Amino acid sequence: METSATPTHCPYCALQCGMNLTPAPDGGVEVTERADFPVNRGALCGKGRTAPAVLSSRVRLTSPLVRSRDGALRPAGWGEALDRVAEGLSRARVVHGPDACGVFGGGGLTNEKAYALGKFARIVLGTSQIDYNGRFCMSSAAAAGNAAFGLDRGLPFPLQDVPRTGCVILVGANPAETMPPSLRYFTELRENGGTLIVVDPRRTKTAEQADLHLAPRPGTDLALALGLLHLVVAEGRTDEDYVRRRTSGWEEARAAAMAHWPEYVERITGVSVPQLRQAVRMFCEPESAMVLTARGPEQQSKGTDTVGAWINLCLATGRAGRPLSGYGCLTGQGNGQGGREHGQKADQLPGYRKLTDPEARRHVAEVWGVDPDSLPGPGRSAYELLDALGTDVRALLLMGSNPVVSAPRAAHVEERLRSLDFLAVSDVVLSETAALADVVLPVAQWAEETGTTTSLEGRVLLRRRALAPPPGVRTDLEVLHELAARLGVEKGFPTDPEEVFDELRRATAGAPADYSGITYRRLAEQNGIFWPCPSGNGPAGSPTGTPTETGTETGTHTRTGTRTDAGTGTGTGIRTDGHPGTPRLFLDRFATGDGRARFAPVSYRAAAEEPDEEYPVLLTTGRVVAQYQSGAQTRRVDELNAAAPGPFVELHPRLAARLGAAEGDPLAVVSRRGRAVAAARITTAIRPDTVFMPFHWPGEGRANTLTNPALDPTSRMPEFKVCAVRLEVVRP
Ligand code: SF4
C-alpha cells in the first residue's frame, strides 16, 4: 500500500470529483480532501465520502463462483472459472456463429477497460453484439449533439464557465441530488447576477434554487422547447446574423417551431404562456446563455428530437460556439463520456470513429494488427441486445453493469438473462445480475487499480491505485487477457493499464475524440486534459477539422492557452508534443463538413404511452442523493442505506386523496409491463397527474419493472422517463 495520500477521483458519477486516499489505521484507505482539483475544490457528496466502504465490504466477492449441478453458485479457482467462461463463449460461437456471443459493458468502466472490451468483442469473439448501459444514459444527447455540431462532447466548455454566463436553462437535471458539489456553479451564477431556469415536472432541490421553475407534464418538453423558439421568433429575438453565418437548416426548423403556438404549447405542457414569455426574456436578454440537459429530455422515445429542439433554441439565439454560451449534456455515469468513446457502443470504434467508415476501420484494424474486413459491423443497441438474449444471442459476457435493476421492462430482461445458454459476469459484489450467472468473476475496484476516465466536461483524468486488491481478486484487464489467450488470441490484451492506454492513444490518433497527445505522465502532472488532444505526428483535430480553442483550464476564460512541453515520446511510436488539450469547442467553427451547426427540423409528438382509463397516471423515474444507479455498490454502504433505505412513490396530495392513500401506505404501481410496490410519499412538489419513483432498488419496489422500452428511433434510448400507470393502496 502507498504510505502517503494518493490523489485520485471518485468511483461514481460523471463529475469525477477529486479526492485523496489516505492510509487508514485498519489497513484500508480513507477519503481526505483534495482541494487542488478545480471541479469540486474539495467538496464531496456522501457517496464519494463513503466510497472506501465498498472496498472492504463484508459482501465483497473474493473468489470466483461457478454454478454447480445442483443450481447453486459455489466458490472455484480462477483456472476453472476462466475455463468455463471461455468454453461457454466458444460453444455459442461454434454452434450458432460469432453473433451468438454478446458483450455488455458499463459506463463506469475506465477508458482502458472500455477499449479492451470493445477490442475483445470484435477481434476475439468476432461479434457485432456489443453495447453497454451508457446507451440508457446519454445516447439521445450524443445523437442530437452529433447531428447539430458534428461532434458530441457532454459539455463543450468547462463547468467553470457556468457562473459567468447570463442565464442557464437546466432541463430534466437535478444536480442537487445527482452531483451535489456541482450545485455551487449554479448558486455562483445567481450570485453573479445570472439567472437559473429549471425545467422539471417535480419541484426538486435544484428547482428550489431556480429563479423560474417550469413544470411540464412528463414527455412534453419537446413542445416546451418549440414553444420557446416560437416566441423567440415572434418577439424578434432571433440572432439573424449568427444564424446566417454559422448555421444551416433554419427555415425548416423555424417553420416547425411557428406551428407550435404558445397557447397550444400551454395545453400540451401545462406551462402557462406568461411563464413561457418570462423564460424567453430571461434567456435572451443577457449576452450569453446556456442550455444544459440531463436524463429528463434524453430518456424518451423522442429524446433525440427533444434535445435537438433545445439545441435549436441555442442556435436561433446565437448561443452556441460563443464564449460562455452553448448547449451541454450533464452526463451521468462516472465514465459515461469515455465509456461511449472507445468502442463499447454497438456502432463505434475507439475515438468516436464510426464502425461503418472504411477509413476508420482501416486505421483501427492496423493498430489491432487485423484485417479491416474481419471487423464485424454495427450490432444491436443495449435494450435490443438484452431482448435478444436466449434467442439470437446465446452467451453473454457482462462487465460493470446490473441490468436486472437498471434496464427498462426489467422483469422481461431478467427472464431473457435466465434463458441464456451461458452468462458470465464480472463484478465486485454479487449484484442481482451476477446472481443469475453461470460464472461470476470477482474483480478489482477503482482504488485498487490505475486507469483513466473522462468526465462530463471531456476532461481525461487519472485514477490511481492506492491499495492492492484483496487476495483472490483480479482486474478486468487480467480477465480479458486470460480469456483472449484461452480463445486463441495470445497477444494484444496487456494487463498493464498504461500499456492499454498507449494503444488507445494510437487508435484514437486523428479521430474526433483524439487522445493521442495525452500520456499518464501528463495526467499525473496536470488536473486532467480535455480532448481532443492530438499528438505531434497525428493530425490536429478530427478529420472534419474539429474547431478548437486550446488552453489549460485555469478557471479564467482564455481563448488561447499555454502549450506545455510535457513529453516528447513514450516508446509507443507517437510523439506527445504537449498539445494543451481543448477546454472549449466550436468557438470558430462547428465540427460539421461545412463548419456550420445544423438545425433539427423537429415537431412535437406524444410519448409512446399516454394515460388512458386503465392507466390514468404518468410515472417518471430518477435518482436520490444517497444511492447511485442500480445501487449495487451504494446499497452495501450502511450510511447511505440509512439515508435512503428503500423505494418510494412520490405523489401529490390530491392524487393521494383520490386513492385514499396516507403517507407511508404501501402503494402498488401497475403498468402494462408489471407491478411494483413502494411506500407513498405525499408532497406538493410533484404534479397531480404524475408519480415519481427512484430506480435504485431490486425486488418488489423495482421501478424499472414498470418502465417502457419504447426506443428512440435514432439513439435507441428507452423511454425511462414517462409511461402510464395505475395506482392502488395495498391493504393488509
Ligand atoms: Fe462522487 Fe459524483 Fe458525489 Fe462527486 S458528486 S463525490 S463524483 S458521486
Automatic annotation (TrEMBL):
Low complexity composition-biased segments = 535-567
Region labeled Disordered — which residues?
A: 535-583
**Alphabetical list of Gene3D superfamilies matching this protein:** 2.40.40.20, 3.40.50.740, ADC-like domains (2.20.25.90), Dimethylsulfoxide Reductase, domain 2 (3.40.228.10)
Question: Which segments constitute the 4Fe-4S Mo/W bis-MGD-type domain?
Answer: 3-59
- Tell me one Pfam family matched here: Molybdop_Fe4S4
Q: Which CDD domains match?
A: MopB_CT_Fdh-Nap-like
* Transmembrane stretches, start-end: none
Which portions of this protein are annotated as coiled-coil regions? none
UniProt KW keywords: 4Fe-4S, Iron, Iron-sulfur, Metal-binding
The record's InterPro entries line, in alphabetical order, gives: Asp_de-COase-like_dom_sf, MoPterin_dinucl-bd_dom, Mopterin_OxRdtase, Mopterin_OxRdtase_4Fe-4S_dom, Prok_molybdopt-oxidoreductase
Check the record and name the PANTHER family matching this protein: NADH-QUINONE OXIDOREDUCTASE SUBUNIT G, RESPIRATORY NITRATE REDUCTASE
- According to UniProt, the name of this protein is Molybdopterin oxidoreductase family protein
